[in-house]
């Protein structure tokens, strides 16, 4: 059986925060604000996996009112979400994600992000994880540099026993 999920997330850019996207710390003058480390890309992918499983969203699994998730490492959250998929007998088909940011330039960091995500989702072949980036041509909140968004689509395949 094939299941598909999609995820979308936005975090505000603020001074005095590290810029962690796709599990990679990017040198930049501002970083993403959130209850956790605010890794917008890993949140979108986590939501896409949960969506494919019909299990709600990361806010349901990791409430932002719970001090346990203050400054949480979103890679650990994604690994937990992936555990839910494995328990239910799913393997990764593929993930395709887009980071929506005017700045910083993501391209140099995308291969490392894809490796981190492939590791967390236990990808078995190259090309199962695709990460892209786009500006919004200076339009809207992303274009003004107020925040960064990410969206993701995930396909899961049930392992046949
Ligand atoms: N934050 C970003 C945004 C975009 N890129 C790369 O630049 C290409 C052109 O972006 P447009 O928004 O003008 O289409 C895009 O395809 C990405 O490869 C980036 O690295 N970082
Ligand atoms: C990850 C959680 C939990 O720390 O917090 P945030 O970093 O604020 O992220 P968000 O994408 O708003 O939603 C999920 C939250 O519950």
Give the arrangement of secondary structure elements:
Blueprint: E1 2-15, E2 19-21, E3 24-26, E4 30-33, H1 40-53, H2 58-61, H3 74-87, E5 90-100, H4 110-120, E6 129-134, H5 140-143, E7 147-158
Helix pairs in contact: 1-3
Bound molecules: the ligand Nc1ccn([C@@H]2O[C@H](COP(=O)(O)O)[C@@H](O)[C@H]2O)c(=O)n1 and 2C-methyl-D-erythritol 2,4-cyclodiphosphate.
How would you describe the overall organization of this protein?
The chain has 161 residues and is an alpha+beta fold. The chain has a single domain (2-158), classed as 2-C-methyl-D-erythritol 2,4-cyclodiphosphate synthase (60s Ribosomal Protein L30, Chain: A, 2-Layer Sandwich). It has helices spanning 40-53, 58-61, 74-87, 110-120, 140-143; strands spanning 2-15, 19-21, 24-26, 30-33, 90-100, 129-134, 147-158. The strands form two sheets. The chain has a five-stranded mixed beta sheet with strand order 4-1-7-5-6. Strands 2-3 form a two-stranded antiparallel ribbon. Helix 1 (40-53) packs parallel to helix 3 (74-87). The longest helix has 14 residues, at 40-53. The two termini are 12 Å apart. The site of 2C-methyl-D-erythritol 2,4-cyclodiphosphate has 13 residues, from helix 2.
The averaged pLDDT comes out at 97
Bound molecules: ligand L45E5XJ5, 2C-methyl-D-erythritol 2,4-cyclodiphosphate
Which structural category fits the helices and strands? Answer: alpha+beta
Number of strands: 7
Helix content: 25-40%
Provide the CATH superfamily: 2-C-methyl-D-erythritol 2,4-cyclodiphosphate synthase
Distance N terminus to C terminus?
12 Å
- Total number of distinct structural domains: 1
Shape: globular
- Reported by name, the CATH topology is 60s Ribosomal Protein L30, Chain: A
Beta-sheet strand percentage? 25-35%
The CATH class: Alpha Beta
Q: What is Rg?
A: 15 Å
């Amino acid at each position: 059986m094939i299941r598909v999920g999609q995820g979308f997330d936005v975090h505000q850019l603020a001074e005095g925060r590290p810029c962690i996207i796709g599990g990679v710390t990017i040198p930049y003058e501002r970083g993403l604000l959130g209850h956790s480390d605010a890794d917008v890309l890993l949140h979108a992918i986590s939501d896409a996996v949960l969506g494919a499983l019909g299990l709600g969203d990361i806010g349901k699994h990791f409430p932002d009112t719970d001090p346990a998730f203050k400054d949480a490492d979103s890679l650990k959250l994604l690994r937990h979400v992936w555990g839910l998929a494995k328990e239910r007998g799913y393997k990764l088909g593929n993930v395709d994600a887009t980071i929506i940011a005017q700045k910083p330039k993501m391209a140099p960091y995308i291969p490392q992000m894809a490796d981190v995500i492939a590791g967390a989702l236990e990808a078995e072949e190259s090309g199962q994880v695709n990460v892209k980036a786009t500006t919004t041509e200076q339009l809207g909140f992303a274009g003004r540099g107020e925040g960064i968004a990410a969206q993701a689509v995930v396909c899961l395949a049930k392992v046949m026993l």
